[in-house]
Amino acid sequence: MFSQLKINNNNPTPSSFLVLPKLLGSFFLLLFFSACVEKESQTVIETGKSNTEASFDFNISEGFPLPRIPEDNPISESKFQLGRHLFYDTKLSGNQTMSCASCHHQDKAFADGLALPTGSTGMVHPRNSQALVNIAYNSTVNWANPTTVTLEQQALVPIFGEFPVELGVSGDNQDEVLARFVNDLDYQAMFAAAFPNEDAPIHFNNIAKALASFGRGLNSFNSPYDQYLAGDDTAISESAKRGLALFESEQMECFHCHGGDHLSAASTDATQIFTNSQFHNNGLYNIAGTGDYPEGGQGLYEITAMDSDKGKFRPPTLRNIALTAPYMHDGSLSTLEEVALHYAAGGRNITEGEHFGDGRANPNKSSMVAGFEATEQDIQDLIAFMESLTDVSFTTNPRFSNPFE
Amino acid sequence: MNNWTPLFSVMIASSTLIGCGGNDNDDSSPASETAQVTIPFSARSGTDEISCDTTLTNLGTGGVNGEMVFLGYYVHDVTFVSSTGAQTKVNMVESAFQDSANDVAFLNFRDKDESCSGNAELTNKSLTVEVDSSALNDVAKVTFKVGVPHEVNHDSSWNSQHGIYASGDYQWNWQAGRKFMRLDVKPATPIARGSDTGDVWNFHLGSTGCMYSTDVASEQNYENLTCANPNRPTIELSDFMVANNRSSTIVLDYNELVASVDFATDNVNTGATQDKFGCMSFPKDDECVNMFATLGYSYNVDSPNGQTTADLTQSVFSIENK
User: Fold this and answer.
1) Is B270 an 8 Å CB contact of chain A?
2) Cα three-residue angle B182-B184-B187, rounded to 5 degrees
3) Is B157 on the interface with A (CB under 8 A)?
4) Could you read off the pLDDT of A130-146 as tens digits, one per residue?
5) Is beta strand B278-279 parallel, antiparallel or unpaired with respect to B202-205?
């Protein structure tokens, strides 16, 4: 079965099985006394969970609510720092050629500038690398997966994914990958600090928890747009102000999907009861008039198999959007101008090639992507507004940078 | 049923201690004996036992040869059924391959890692179960479910709680679940798919179409995840016998699973984005239709969400008594 089941010639019981009694012990505790697992966090809750969270540097400006945090992974600086190290460490890929940061560059708001990235074994990914901006607030965290609602869930996908392979950890090498951390004194200390109640804290679920905790710190609320909203009338240009007005107009409808604190309606936070999960088709494709998107890029349909879900994706945040080109789930629009013109046209009409079809007529297209009249100045104003969402303090914050450099 | 040696001694236990067994043969006695029974499993290509060093033969409509890449699956809810239909659930004995708390076992027939090209890997070709001894007086059938229970399937915390859930090869994180069964085989000649070619005919069985039943953020967890297609085949096999603490062998015949498969071609389904080579349980994948039928499922690719329905008779598993 699994890699830990390799046979030792002299001992048919692999050494890793020797830890089984310990695992089982904790497993029974987990099953029957699940509260015990929460002991650490429950203590925190009783003495003021908010104190712990308040002491953690979320990089969130005053007045903005905190993100939701799963009860089984309370935030801590130790976890954030462990997650930061793991994020930047190629030890976390099977062949040690890539890290999370290979596809998520801080200077690009953690996007990578490519239409489609390539995984550690050479497979091209069907999705554009997402920016990692205010991701803790996402209702769902992948491009189009309604079941992946926590960063902990998400972290396991690039680690173990096979279609495509991203970091390329598998049954064949996962014990070897863990051993890289187990045999590293620095990581021993970091895992121990992050998960102080566990005897053997170095396992993939804790790696996911640490990466998620790093992700919860990646918040951007200090763009010129934010300064403008806070009262600094000179923070953004007159063009950007006109763009903001257009953005919020019923004529252009942009804000329906990209509104709110995070400029994505598919956002939630600790003060909200509901998730606001949503996915929309924006008329990017309509292959042969069937509603289809290219194979491998059908969006929500890949989970639900409902024809009406073809081409539906979560609206991403627009914060730092000027840094995250190319755009859309497949990177098929190169510039913000192309994006603005796409929405002005109410979709994309592809007139030749294998993706031939009029996306404007996609049967699943959102009613909000109806197209609008816009002058060249309007388009430039929209772009100026989107550029005002760039938060340089986010992309240069040493707290988010590579700790190995 | 000769030559079967009793591997385990009969254990005495209070029935109240194993009371979760759901013994329908309730004889109202305050205590009963518990026996350990070994249930052998076999994976075959026709009549040949499958291992990394054997060639699978006569596969699919083209009768091609092939080699194992993965061959493993989970089972749970194993039940002995008497000639009168009385059901006695058996309990997994805790081991490296058996999670007694959830009554799940993992069966592995691959004896080398790295797609059968690497180092030796432990196989597991039997279950060790505890069952009320009185149930052994009359056993006619066995039933079991392929896969893991819903609450284990969608709760990734189990990954680090029991070794049978640890392998990334059987996690299915993008589907918020696990692969119940992974039977991947490399045919002797490549598979054509449009302008593409592939090396491995995959079969990944798992729950699909999963969605949360609530929009309340704090309640979006596995307990509130419902799957349109649970895809947990219930296998019922007659002529099942137990003697001397050992049962008939439960045989999986890969050739039956792929009997209608054309290994030369994998259809490009414009809509089916998970239509990788073979069948990975995507509800609109043509290649799944005949393969799922052999596990007892109608695979309704033309229904709105590609609903699967367990209304056919499976042909992959059989009983062997010798």
Assistant:
1) yes
2) 165
3) yes
4) 999 999 999 999 999 99
5) parallel
